[in-house]
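Go through this fold for my students:
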Amino acid sequence: MHATDSRGHSPAFLQPQNGNSHRSSGYVPGKVVPLRPPPPPKSQASAKFTSIRQEARATFAFSSEEQQAQRESRKQKRHKNTFICFAITSFSFFVALAVILGISSKYAPDENCPDQNPRLRNWDPGQDSSKQVVIKEGDIFRLTSDATVNSIVIQDGGLLVFGDSKDGSRNITLRTRYILIKDGGALHIGAEKCRYKSKATVVLYGKSDEGESMPTFGKKFIGVEAGGTLELHGAQKVSWTLLVRTLHSSGLIFGSYAFEKNFLRGLNVRVIDQDTAKILEIERFDTHEYHNESRRLQEFLRVQDPGRIVAIAVGDSAAKSLLQGTIQMIQDRLGSKLIQGLGYRQAWALVGVIDGGSTSCNESVRNYENHSSGGKALAQREFYTVDGQKFAVTAYSEWIEGVSLSGFWVEVVDGVKLHLLDDVSSWKPGDQIVVASTDYSMYQAEEFTLLPCPECSRFQVKVKETPKFLHMGEIVDGVDMRAEVGILTRNVVIQGEMEDSCYGENQCQFFDYDTFGGHVMIKKNFTSVHLSHVELKHMGQQHLGRYPVHFHLCGDVDYKGGYRHATFVDGLSIHHSFSRCITVHGTNGLLIKDTIGFDTLGHCFFLEDGIEQRNTLFHNLGLLTKPGTLLPTDRNNSMCTTMREKVFGNYVPVPATDCIKTVLDAGIWYLFHKEPTGESSGLQLLAKPELTPLGIFYNNRVHSNFKAGLFIDKGVKTTNASAADPREYLCLDNSAR
């Protein structure tokens, strides 16, 4: 039996159990107790006699030279044996060491991973929507399963960590009305040096007209107050890239093709280019009525280039005047086996390749009985364009209750390939992506679902849906027209739980869907906030201060504020939301990087009061920013003229001068106030916003806006509505433009 001490190590020696009385005859203190007694030694006399006799025998048998050679041989053999033993011992040692280190690294906790903290206790609050959870001092919890609670407050050193697994197989969903983190409390899902591998989802539920409203934060939120820590870090993905080949509507360069018509008597023929899927020729040959039409078809097929795709479908009837020479041509060049027996009003369809033989031919025939063919005679074959796009050519013919129909389809199958600028091997099947519009209308942005694509390179993906619009992938005359392609899916998700339609006092006169989503608000003097590669969807509310991500009057959040690790958001995906994307309000030194804002209401990346400084927006993508109701400059015409609660008297706002649809008209809007606005109004600043230099503005791309990519304005109206100026506060100040 192998014994170990309390720390799992082998002891230096085994102590006798009952003192000296049980020592074996071979026991020496400090050495391992032998497993068996040593063999009895020979007597000295017999040993000496044996040695003398052996030496004498050796001396008698060999000369002195031979004896010397024998001694050298024995010496070399001993050295060789010593070396072999040393090598075997060393090898065994290193093998054992490797095994031990491998086992240790497999099971040892990673100090960079918050869910491997040995102090953590597994926590399973269950499914109880009435439970109000307070995680306080001494509560060090690891969430290990799905849970539903009313609310969670993390404070006084309490810690909540989402459990993870090394293979990414864990899937945890936490439903709650809100999470409030303050006074030393912390919420961790992954870490910068140990990113979350599994799927973690926080669902913020509740309606605007039910439940408790918390001071400052309201409802349906994750809130961070002074002393709070929020660290969310999902798996890294390339956030967005560019097309390098144009993505055509339907997925084919020349578009898809669909044709159907009744009573086109004879053989209807389409010739398709295999390299591009382009329809090259469209012909009809009335081989039922005219022999010359049969001869014309024979000549038509004779001159076709090898490799061309030919699709044929019978309309009505085609056999009466079909000559044997034409039949032979169809057999020889297209590999047909059914054309020889084609009869009156039989439905027949074929798709083949010129000189491709019978293996390239697919054909079908159905008999005409009682004014019907009992279904389609349908022929179909699949091909690849020169760019590797898979497409199908289909021909069909049928009779339905005395009506003859024939038709053709040319369309992509098994997904459409996208060719991209960057390595997107981090994008996985099932992920959702968005391709930006490259037309005048931003509404031509399209969403797609990724399919498995083993044949794709790391610069290609395949999507399930067929594109409805053309998306440019080229640089034309020096102008970069390439569409942006962004990934929306992340493995750490914060989302609002939504109702099926608009309700209550949620501006339902403008929206037919629920706009009361979740929101994340961070307040001043937080301990640490870093968000990376997190997906936020159904976030934001059409109420002031309720945005997907909102840094609210935080002051300096970089080194100037005492943060050794400056605050940032990186690689976020904010989509299908209801009020902005990221709002920086009275906050300085924030880095916003590689973040996508797609399909939201009102200004997407928003610096609120005009006093914000040292904030960096780097390599972000905003698209499909739709009108919202919060500010005059968020609104469209209808909202602008209808929302009159904050104007003076009976004044009716004028969209062109009060609102001007800035959200829709401008991609990037710089506004230099004469004085701070909003909650920063009245602050005495060292520098006036209107005199502050523009700063670095480099390598920005703006397109698909109605009027301009960039607006630089002097300011907005900074006085409340009055008889002298009845317009709403923060509407456009046209006198200053």
